[in-house]
Amino acid sequence: MVVQEKARPRAAPRTGAVFLRGTIQVLGELLITAGVVLLLFVAWQLWWTNVESDAKQTEVIKEFAQGLGTPAPAGPETTAAPAAPADFGPPVVGTAPGHAGTIGIMYIPRFGDTYTRPIVQGTSQDVLDTLGLGHYSNTAMPGAVGNFAVAGHRQTHGAVLDNIHTLVPGDKIYVQTKEGFYIYVFRNNQIVMPSRTDVLEPVPTQPGVTPTESFLTMTSCNPRFGAEERIIAYALLDSWRPAAAGPPTEIAAQMAAATGRG
Amino acid sequence: MYAWIFRHLPGPLWLRIVFSLVLIAIALVLMVQFLFPWMSHFTQFTDSTIGSADQP
C-alpha cells in the first residue's frame, strides 16, 4: 500500500521534467549533427574540392587544345625532328587574355608524367579554386623579358602545386601557349612571408631593377596544410619553340594524352 | 528530434526509410553547394597568393 502510493507520482513525471529531457535530447542531437557536418566539411575541403577541380581543369585543357586548331605534331617525323636543338630567335610573346581566360598549359615532368595544369588569367578565388594556376595579371606574359608569375593551391582545389618543394635545380618547366612552347629551367625555392610582393617584381626580389632575362615565378602556400608563409619557385627561360615546330620531345606524349590528341 | 521526424514521415516503414535517405541526400547537396563554400572563407589555409595583388 505504502509503496504503491509513493510510486504513483514517479510513474507519471511532471511536464517540466519531460520538457527538460526533450530539450537536452534535441540539444545533444544538434551537437552531434554539428560534429558530423564539420567532419564532412573537412572531407569536402581536403578531398572533394580536388575531385571537382581536377575535372574542371581537364575540361579547360581540352577546350584550350581545341582552340589551337590543327595539331602541331603531324606525325612521327616531326616529333623526332627536335633531336637537333634549333634556334628560333627571340620568343614571341602573346597578348594577355581577359580575366579567367586561358593563357596556356603548364607541364612539369618532376610532378609526374601526367602533370598538366591550365594557366588562367587572374589570381582571384574564382580562378584559383577551380581553373588551376592563376597568372598575376600585372606581371609579364610567358617568354617576355621580366617576370611571368603564377599562383597555385598547395592543398585543396586540385592541389596544383602540391609538390613544389620537390623541384630540383635544372628541372624543366614547360609552358605551352597559342604562340608556342617556353622552356623554363628551375633555379631555386624561397620561403617568404605572405606580404613579400617584391617576389613578383620584373627581377624577383629586386625592385627597380630593369630585367634582362625572362623569369617564371610560382607562389603557393607553405607549410603544406597552412598559409602562414608562401613558398616561391623561381625559374629562368632557357629556350622556346614556335607552335609550328611542334612540342619538345620530352613532353610530346604527355601533351598528346592531356589534350586528347595523339 | 530525428526520432520525431521519422515518426511523422508518412507511409509504411520502407517508405519512411526511403524518405529519410532522400532528406539526408538533400541536406548533403545543400551543404556541398552552399554551406561548405561559404565556410571555406573562414579557413584561410588555402590562400596561395602574395600580398593583396589582384585579390578580390
Give the mean pLDDT of chain A.
Answer: 86
Task: Tell me how many strands of chain B there are.
Answer: 0
Number of strands of chain A: 8
Number of domains of chain A: 1
The oligomeric state of the chains shown is: heterodimer
Give the overall silhouette of chain A.
Answer: elongated
Coarse morphology of chain B: rod-shaped
Task: Write up what this structure looks like.
The complex is a heterodimer of chains A (262) and B (56). Chain A has 262 residues and is an alpha+beta fold. Chain A has one domain: Beta Barrel (Sortase, Chain: A), CATH 2.40.260.10. Chain A is 32% helix and 24% strand. Chain A has five helices and eight strands; from the N terminus they run H-H-H-E-E-H-E-E-E-E-E-E-H. In chain A, strands 1-2-3-4-7-8-6-5 form an eight-stranded mixed beta barrel. Chain A is elongated. Chain B is mainly α and 56 residues long. Helix content of chain B is 61%, strand content 0%. Chain B has two helices and no strands. The longest helix of chain B has 27 residues. Chain B starts with a helix and ends in a 17-residue tail after the last helix. The relative contact order of chain B is 0.08. The model of chain B has no long low-confidence stretch (mean pLDDT 84). The chains are: A alpha+beta (262), B mainly alpha (56). At the A-B interface, helix 2, helix 4 and strand 7 of A face helix 2 of B.
